[in-house]
Specification:
By secondary structure, the chain is mainly α. It is built from 1 helix and no strands.
Length: 73
Amino acid sequence: MTPTRGAGERIALGDIEGQLRSLGGSAHAAVTESKTTALAAAVVGGALTVASVYFLGRRRGRRRSTVLEIRRV
């Protein structure tokens, strides 16, 4: 990852900046990729929740509704 240094060499500010930029760049790419995946999962989860609430409500409405049968004599 980093080149080895001799005993007398000092670490320059540019070296530290370069390492931080490389870490930040890879982290930024990972965050961007994760955002799109999380957004897609949230949309699918929301759609499934709305659909399940709708169908469960329909079922409950059918079960609790009164059936009235009228016959002419």
